[in-house]
Specification:
alpha+beta, 2 domains, five-stranded antiparallel beta sheet, 6 helices, 24% strand
Length: 223
Amino acid sequence: MKEKENALQAVRLLMTKLGLTSAEVINFLSSTPSAQTAKVGMYYYAKENIYSPKPIPGKTISGIIAYVDPSGHHGLVIGLREERLPWSKEQLWCDHLLPDDGLKNTQLIMLYAQKYKHNAQAAEWCHSYAYDGISVGNAFLPSSEQWLKIISNIADINLALGKIHKPLLDKFFYWTSSVAEITDYSNSRGHKEQRAETIGTTTLDTGLTEKNVKEYTRCVISF
């Protein structure tokens, strides 16, 4: 009897605190990470650090779960907005960028941009991203390997995005925060260039693009 009273009291507290109906509280409780594992295509709420299979009334959706690690409680969330930007209009050269860690890459790119007084438009946009409950500094430009994990789930992600009328992942190329060096042999000497890796969501493959070209940028956050 005491347990039932405590449960009812907890429900009433949530109804008062969150401004939800009893039915919405039940949905809210069933959507918390402690109640179920995360799945690709679920809606993520950054302020509350929860996810749900359906939108929760009155709550701000921050993004779509795009990848889940083996634990079922951590992964990547892709943002709801995108921009078409250069990676770096001045073709900023960056060393030590990783294929598998977009957060560290974004932080390094920002440091190189500050050091050389160049712009890094794609990484800067992600770093300053402050939409849909996501705080500045939490979003980042995904690495090439992170993007590959995301586009392996593209059908489920686009289905969830379409249900809330947000732009789909359907552009030809998106920037990653990873880079690669190439040698241009257009002259007899040849010279090294550094290009940024791009991901094609329609072709499902990677490419190398000059950094001053405008391509689409979509941020992710970790949960």
